[in-house]
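Q: Structure tokens for this one, please.
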Amino acid sequence: MPVEFIGMIGTRDASELHGPTVSITGGSIDLAYVRKFAKVHEDGGFDRVLVGYSSIGPDGFNVVSYVAAATERLKFLLAHRPGFVAPTLAARKLATLDHFTNGRLAVHIITGGSDAEQQRDGDWLDHDTRYRRTDEYLDIVRRVWTSEEPFDYDGEFYQLKGAFSEVKPLQQPHLPIYFGGASGAAVGVGAKHSNVYAFWGEPIAAIKQRIAEVKAAAPPGKDLRFSVSLRPILGETEAKAWEKAHYILSRINETRGKAPAIPEAVGSLRLLEFAKESEIHDKRLWTPVAAATGARGNTTALVGTPEQVAESLFDYYQAGVTTLLIRGFNPVEDAIAYGRDVIPLVRQEVQRQERQTATVA
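A: Here is the predicted structure, written as tokens:
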């Protein structure tokens, strides 16, 4: 299975280094920066870029539309939170955008792990109820994409009569669906609906266990792929990489000034548990940034030379992961380095293994 590399773009220069309130998914819009950021990923050999979602940030549909016009090959992973747009409308919006991006769109479903974040948009459902709603939402979206006839729907959250869309996705039978969620309530919904199930950067053994859990919850015979999100920190030597890592941590601690609040998201709580167990897991999975930030998002790092980081990324591939989402703490500069120094090494190793497997077969 080929390996897929995903980066992440924002609409301004932002990362944890700039303070706790400066998020890559929020803030102002710098058009020149957005174009540059996207082109860096396209020129660096990334397959896709994630356009994130938050209740205070720019609208991702418009960001993708703008960036698609500034790129040719780069694909997009649009984060989308069910519940704030009717599923019938969401299906039409996504199908339309798929045409205007010439089939370069995928959707990343994030149900939401923070009550406060949800309530900013007027959503007062509890955590598990939100996932039941997501299940219905995706049932409807996928049916709108594929149905050749109007249909009715009578669910707990949505009641439709004569639902139908003349616009279908350019990609058939539908857009690729990525899905994130670490809770028990998430697994069944994600395993049912997604093509790619996404994890944050946990140790290899934990990732293998989670892959097994999701596969066990999936419909029989379903072909599921898996993604891991990591934050590589590179250096010309291993010592310089660790020096950079400790500078990043000190800078984050300096800008934050106080201990982070305990998160609600199960994925964040899992990262914090791994951080308590050890600062370093496996060969070079480094957890202190997760501890310093309350694991708000993917905050575990791989620290080392490009060759060492590529080796660790390949370890995840061998564990069953075929999508690697990598983003840095210096977003543009790190994306350039990943494209130049890391991605080619991983692809070469994947190709070498594929040739070896084909020879044995």
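A few notes: The CA atoms of residues 262 and 294 lie 6 Å apart. The mean pLDDT is 95.
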